[in-house]
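Subgroup meeting minutes
Present: P.N., E.W., G.H.
Scribe: E.W.

1. P.N. recapped why we're keeping a running log of single-chain structure predictions: easier to compare across weeks, and new members can see raw inputs and outputs side by side.
2. G.H. added today's entry (724 aa).
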Amino acid sequence: MSIAQNPQSNVSSGNDEIDLGKLFGILIDSRWLIIITTFIFACIGISYALLATPIYKADALIQIEAKSTGMPALGGDMADMFGGDDSKATTEIEIIKSRMVLGDTVDKLNLTTVATPIYMPIFGKSIARILGDSHHVAISRFTVLENTQSQSEILTITNSDNGEYSLTNSDSRELLIGKVGTLATNNGYSLFVTHLVGANGATFSVSKISQLNAIQALQNNLSIAEQGKQTGILKLSMTGENRENIKNILDDISQTYFLQNVARNSAEAENSLAFLKHHLPKIKQQLTLAEDKLNQYRQTNESIDLPLEAKSALDTMVSLETQLNQLTFKESDISQLYTKEHPAYVALLDKRKTLLKEKARLNKRIEKLPKTQQAVLRLTRDVEVNQQIYVQLLNKVQELSIVKASTVGNVRILDDAQAYSQAVKPKKSLIVVLATLLGGMLSVAIVLLRAAFHRGIENPDQIEQLGLPVYASIPMSDWQEIINKKNKMKHALTVSQTLLAVANPADLSIEALRSLRTSLHFAMMEAKNNILMIVGPSPEIGKSFVSANMAVVIAKTGSRVLIIDADMRKGRLDRQFCISHQCGLSDYLSGQKAHTDIIKQSGVENLDIISCGDTPPNPSELLMHPRFKELMTWASANYDMVVIDTPPILAVTDAAIVGAHVGTTLMVGRFEKSVVKEVEISKQRFEQNGIEVKGFILNAVVRKASGYYGNYGYYQYSYVNDKK
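Output recorded in log:
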């Protein structure tokens, strides 16, 4: 078997450029997380698309035309009075959404009564719809006591065949019993159910809301928009769960708006016509009275014929009165449109002043005539003026009657309300696609975010930048994982069940340790003794695993090896070699045992072991005792290699004390768990104590795509005999 480790990177780690290859590798390493998360989101999207209540849409089309009386032949003042500018679409939209229009629909369709089926929570409604087990109720009338607070009553079907039901309140008190098609009343409650579908025991929630709340609900659900720019064509649309219901509501809104528009356009003509009909009898009475006075005066003074001069004055006077009366009518129209400061209003007042001056001048001229002629002239003038006014009013009444009868409004319903057969919500395919994309993007974001905040050692170059050479990268062993699981279930009896170097010597991890053994052979040639210390910056990094298996690998070369568990706090080598921890290093250092008494057989040829012993209260002080130096001297002289497993340097100072007696120190770090800063601080701490860390061992390396596609990688190959 041959293993090549840690090729040099082509790009220095100090480069701030984004390594796309590494990012791609990170995504490949986390592919199962991404796939599972995306699959879960896709399932959620599919479930929502299947279980969500379908929402249908209905729409109608209305045209807003220019205002017209329908009688172009009238023209003149009548056209000015009842004609107008084009209706603005925005104004009409607000009119449709007003309480005047929507309130009529709410009252007509009894939208203040809300009746909804009661299903099992969360998924009950969806399951009932899928199974076709839905129930429905239609209520045309529902009244409650005036002082009753707004609350929901429960309607329960008692006999579905006969359409019988009962109504109870929230306290399960029965309010009334009724039957479909019959008005049920009791204690101030009245209910008229027109349609009821469901099995016996099916329940409905029935509540009464205010008209204002019902109108606001319609306003929120009703959408109105002009089709195109300044086309005057409005599209009304509404969405809901019941296609027939939203179609009826939209139809009623359209009809109500259409009828109020016609009534609004004919309102002006109606008001003017009422005004004229009110004053017409008075004018007729005045005309009759003026005629009677003239006839009586003629009979009293016999027939008097007016001379030509008087007749001319009479005609002029009648013409002036007629013009003044016309100005009076026109002023009443203008006063509704303009103020007295408007130029049209000012011109009308100026014309009236001119006519009044001419009338005053003519009156002075008439005063020069004989008295009998003046009286006849005055009476004749009254008759003709009243006759002119009466005829003019009659004409106006006829014209307004025609205008009122011909008013059709400026609104036309182009398309009646229709509901689409397909639901507009939810868009199932879109929801599934978006949910899947969301799951994929979220999982990718989580993976990249986790990688961005991850500070564990992944690249040997990170350690070498500290000036610490990496002697070996030990790959993660699947076999060792199996051994660890077995040891948790039961106590191992032999080293063949605990030590990887004995259980599976061909494992890649053991091959990496053999490579380390070769490197150590040359590294320790200049060391002051043959003692090797294995240390780590923090716990749980596999330091004892490296120490035990390294000792076995060296012992298998024929060298006599002694491994010492110097971790008297939490020593673990006794578990690796299946021996008792008692009668160990702490017993020797405390003077209870001799060094020959604490040496135990490991079960591996050429390998002896000294366990940690009982946990003492002062491990650091014991290591500083001269006995430890004597033990090191004796061990170095009697063994070819001495391997010492020590506690983590950042946790306790034991490793620094032991390091003063050893010739070679190697530091162990765990892949993706140990942090570069920890290694740097550990190295500085050893240097402060005058101890040189010879090299670094990267343990539990996992082969990842992020390393393969990035600027560094780990090349691990199996090279064993495949012949049986």
